[in-house]
């Protein structure tokens, strides 16, 4: 039941929404999904990316400047 609750609370984003947040092209998002760097769920012919995964990817990729 806990898994069902977690899944119900998940927010998914379209590839276009992810691209807008990351300020990259949709093709870049598709490359990240296909390479496995960004997890996604396939829904029909399109992908949905968990919002938490986008934030985690950005945090992991962030390189601070001194």
From TrEMBL:
<dbReference type="Pfam" id="PF12728">
    <property type="entry name" value="HTH_17"/>
</dbReference>
<dbReference type="InterPro" id="IPR041657">
    <property type="entry name" value="HTH_17"/>
</dbReference>
<dbReference type="InterPro" id="IPR009061">
    <property type="entry name" value="DNA-bd_dom_put_sf"/>
</dbReference>
<dbReference type="InterPro" id="IPR010093">
    <property type="entry name" value="SinI_DNA-bd"/>
</dbReference>
<dbReference type="GO" id="GO:0003677">
    <property type="term" value="F:DNA binding"/>
</dbReference>
<feature type="domain" description="Helix-turn-helix">
    <location>
        <begin position="12"/>
        <end position="60"/>
    </location>
</feature>
<protein>
    <submittedName>
        <fullName>DNA binding domain, excisionase family</fullName>
    </submittedName>
</protein>
